[in-house]
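Problem statement: downstream parser choked on a complex file, so we are re-checking the raw output for the KG4 run. The parser issue turned out to be on our end (a line-ending mismatch), but while we're here, posting the original submission so the record is complete.
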Amino acid sequence: MTLFLAIETSCDETAAAVFTDEPRILSSVIASQTDLHARFGGVVPEVAARAHLQRLLPVIDEALQQAGVRLEEIGGIAVHNTPGLIGALLVGVSAAKMLALALDVPLLAVNHIEGHIYAARLAVGRDIFPCVGLVVSGGHTVLFHCRDALHFAMLGGTLDDAAGEAFDKVASLLGLGFPGGPAVEREAAQGDPDAVALPRAFLHDERLDFSFSGLKTAVLYALAGQNQPRPAPPPPGKQRADLAASFQKAVVEVLVAKARQALRRTGLHRLAVGGGVAANRSFRAALEAMTRDEGAELVIPPLPLCTDNAAMAAIAVEKWRRRDWAALDLDAVPTWTPTATT
Ligand code: KG4
Ligand code: ZN
């Protein structure tokens, strides 16, 4: 059995995990920086990078300790090297290179977005490919045709804001704070999802693309009227809850409709979903209903595996088996544009 240590520092979670080549997760430790960024209303890249520097080694120690594994027993180092904030990614990539060099073990570079799909495979503990993959995170909203663990072809994606980004921006408009997704979800639970008519971009379009920036603007207009300066956030009450609920319903409806189209288009009968927005309960319930209706299987990780973590880097095991190892001059790459031929 080979043991792996994985590192995730792409945004505002400092995370490490230990897993076997099965892969079986032995530990997954996540130090969230939410407290540090909350007062700025969003992630501040320099603050994130500095916090990763301070927290990464203790987080790695904790992951090893929880797994009951000594560093010398580790046979491979995995790291998310793309996409993400450059300063943040660099901390994890540098540490991973240093550890791979010191231990003289393979270095494995993992794509964070593909890792979000792989989290679904980890959750069920068996092969899930081929499937349609839907990643809905703070930076990406992408539909993939996943042929196997390492071959994903993009079917469609957002043309502007990611769904998680829209949640965060609407939370800010409504004065619900940071991080926005869970705050909007809590507020939406008090509101009427049919109270405010909001747009659903591309709902009846053939393309499997998304657009959420118009929806965010529609929430602004519903609050302030057109051509007005940005208003002060509404007080707690019916208007705020109704807007949150109507916004959430619009996002969920579009995401689920496009996932249904992707299943039909590809003829596949399995949908794997990942990314922070997949933690949203109303989204999960709508996905369950849709896949049941389509006679398809839904594979969706439990909440801690939806948001950023290092265990999802276990896709590295597939690369390790194929001897697809990274060189020690591995770069941190902030942007990644999936293609139809990935
Ligand atoms: O995957 P993730 O942890 O980080 C990125 O790779 O971006 O996703 C973070 C995003 C944020 O935009 C956050 O607001 C959203 O996921 N999110 C949610 C929920 N929990 C996190 N959105 C809606 N409902 C939630 N419960
Ligand atoms: Zn992520």
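For whoever reads this later: Residues 128-304 form a domain with the Nucleotidyltransferase; domain 5 fold (CATH 3.30.420.40).
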